[in-house]
Amino acid sequence: MTKRSIASGAVGAGLILALAGCTNPYDPAQRAVGGGLLGAGAGAAIGGAVGGGHGAAVGAAIGGATGALTGAATTPPPPPPPGAYYGPPPGYPQSPPPGYGYQSSPPPGYGSPPYGYPPSY
């Protein structure tokens, strides 16, 4: 009988942890709901072990409220958009000034660009 209750408790804990990973970590409302559910479950388990049936109800209420407040209060700010990591800092030109970098056409009088070694004269 004890092995059966341990196995069902482990499966229940695994399902709770799996569902906790399905929330958006940057949404305060989802974090409050997830924290409230986890807090209520933990509070009910502790209250039931310590005070019986009435203790489980009180523990679930206190744990749920504490988990919801903690989940909403610890919401991190969202990361910056993907383009914010790259590119020049503000105030710098977006392209190099003229005269730098690759030239698309050869200078006047040279014709097409040669391939391989330059011809020997």
Q: What gross morphology would you assign?
A: elongated
Question: Could you tell me the radius of gyration in angstroms?
Answer: 32 Å
Structural class: mainly alpha
Uncertain segments: none
Mean pLDDT: 77
Give the amount of beta strand, in percent: under 5%
Distance from N terminus to C terminus (CA atoms, Å) equals: 98 Å
**Secondary-structure element order, as H and E?**
HH
Total strand segments: 0
Number of helices: 2
* Helix percent band: 40-55%
- Major sheet description: none
SSE topology sketch:
Blueprint (H helix, E strand, L loop, with lengths): L1 H19 L7 H46 L48
Give short descriptive properties of this protein.
0% strand, mainly alpha, 121 residues, 2 helices
Describe this protein's structure.
The chain is mostly helical and 121 residues long. It has helices at 2-20, 28-73. It is built from two helices and no strands. The radius of gyration is 32 Å and the shape is elongated. The mean pLDDT is 77.
Summarize the structure.
The protein is mostly helical. It has 2 helices and no strands.
